[in-house]
Amino acid sequence: MPENELNKYSIIHLSSVHKPFDIRIFQKECKSLAQNGFNVSLIVPHNKDEVVNDIRCIPIKKDPNRFYRMIRTTWRIYKKALSENGDVYHFHDPELIPVGIYLKMKGKKVIYDVHENVPDQILDKHWIPLHLRWLVAKAVGFIEQMGSKFFFDGVVAATPTIAKRFPPKKTIIVQNFPKLNLQPIKEQETLYSDRSNVVIYVGVITEQRGIKQVIKSIGLVPKHLGTHLYLAGEFVPQNLLLEVREMQGWDCVKFFGLKSHELILDLFQHARIGIAILHPTPQYLTSLPIKLFEYMSAGLPVIASNFQLWKSIVEKNKCGILVDPLNPKEIAQAIQWLLENPHEAEEMGRRGQEAVRLYYHWEMEEKKLLQLYQRIVA
After folding, report:
1. What is the pLDDT of residue 336?
2. Domain around 326
């Protein structure tokens, strides 16, 4: 369908949880649709109505309380979505499934974007009583299945494992790979050999994402190597920061807080290793974190959890070392080996960078997203 015909279609993305300029939602999906001729809006918790990169950000008030967010924020999104009278509604949070169903009943086209394996994710939710988690996970999984089978026009799954849970004819896999034009693959501005012994972690910082094991491992690396850990992200919950500050190894940590993508790219220029040590929970065993591919794209060798799915990336491309994510001593040994063997480490980084250029980039995933939209609006 020609671009001048696409701009008559109003595409509205919906999220009650994510930030306005989320990497997957805004920087990738919304931008790709706008750049290919669609009229794109995003209804999201935000502080103002504005147009950024030809995408209109429509603000809604977000309740800080989780329970009220699921009710009042969801209701606000539904009312705002209906008032915008879009052609296709693309929602990103499982709590918006009722919104998607109501919009479909109003005659709208609806797409469900599944970022996580939600039933597995629920099993790790500390705020749900342990004896209820299995029941809640089953119930939400059933609602997802019914919605995708009888109401939604398309399902966008972030990983192949997630896609298996949904109707094959409606489902596409759009993986969260980095954009080549956001993270250009080129000769590093700072030579690898000129960098300090820095290990970097970017993203949400939680106990289940391995922050305690990473800090412990930094404390176990021989002191003569002068190793430092750069952290860029947000602690969840925030009191976790106070807890880890008391740990052995924190004196080697530099915490930057939340940073823009551009500043994170600059931090990559100072690092020798990217680390992704997620715990072996049901949720993470089948996930492919964007940080893994961002490290690879930046030419950094990776230290990652020894999950079977991740082996198919890291071992296949010989771009890093897989470790037991619950074993700080093993993590420390991997860090030490990469720092003491800089030539081999740099070659791992180059192989990872080449793998991203050939296989793991957004520009390939974008094509599948556009094909879905072409089918839905045809």
Report:
1. 98
2. 192-358
Please state the separation of Cα 282 from the chain's center in Å: 17
Long-range contacts of 181-190 (CB under 8 A, 24+ apart): 182/27, 182/261, 183/265, 183/294, 183/297, 183/298, 185/297, 185/353, 185/356, 185/357, 188/269, 188/299, 189/269, 190/269, 190/270
Tokens 């700072």 -> residue: 190
The residues, any chain, with a CB within 8 Å of residue 68's CB and separated by 6 or more, are none
The domain total for the chain is 2
pLDDT at 236: 92
CB-based contacts of 69: which residues, under 8 Å, 6+ apart?
Answer: 16, 17, 62, 63, 95
157 and 233, same structural domain? no
Residues 171-189 have a mean pLDDT of 73
Q: pLDDT grade, residue 350 (50/70/90)?
A: very high
In this structure, are 117 and 264 located in the same domain? Answer: no
Q: What angle do CA 94, 98, 101 make, to 5 degrees?
A: 115
Model confidence pLDDT, tens digit, residues 213-265: 999 999 999 999 999 999 999 999 999 999 999 999 999 999 999 888 888 98
Q: Are residues 245 and 368 in the same domain?
A: no
How confident is the model over 104-115, as a mean pLDDT? Answer: 97
pLDDT at 181: 64
Token duo for residue 88: 């296709």
Tokens 């930057």, located at residue = 256
Which amino acid makes up residue 227?
T
**What percent of the chain has a predicted confidence (pLDDT) above 90?**
81
> What's the pLDDT band for 190 if we cut at 50, 70, 90?
confident
| Same domain assignment for residues 48 and 123 | yes
Q: What is the CATH number of the domain that holds 153?
A: 3.40.50.2000
In a domain, 183, yes or no: no
